[in-house]
Amino acid sequence: MKSMLALSLALAAALSVSACQTQQQTNALAGGALGGGAGALIGSAVSNGSPGGVIAGAALGAGAGALLGSSLTPSSPPSYGGGCARWGYDYNGNRICVAYY
Question: Distance between CA 17 and CA 9 in Å, rounded?
Fold first, then answer.
């Protein structure tokens, strides 16, 4: 039973991460996961372990975490200590530096 639960959780995690194509989507997913976990813990503590409180806390925490994670994504790529001599595009169409000064 425990191995089936561990396998299903690993599969769910792999599927949820496989759809992320941009940094903003990745940050929203991570924020939603962390917010959902924290919200479930807070909901459990506030409602004395009531299942409804846990579910409500997880839902509110996941929503808030996804919004916060998405909004905190930087709008431009960070500088790596030098200028970019030539720009290119990766397979997702994101602009990347392919040659530095």
Answer: 12
The domain locations on the chain are 23-75
Q: How far apart are CA 59 and CA 62, in angstroms?
A: 5
Residue type, position 101, single letter: Y
Quote the CA–CA distance of 31 and 71 in Å, as a whole number: 10
What is the spatial distance between Cα 52 and Cα 59, in angstroms, rounded to a whole number? 11
SS (H, E, C) 25-70: HHHHHHHHHHHHHHHHHHHHHHCCCCHHHHHHHHHHHHHHHHHHHH
pTM over 0.85: no
Residue pair 66/38 in contact by the 8 Å Cβ criterion:
no
pLDDT in tens, 46-86: 998 888 888 889 889 989 998 998 888 776 655 555 677 88
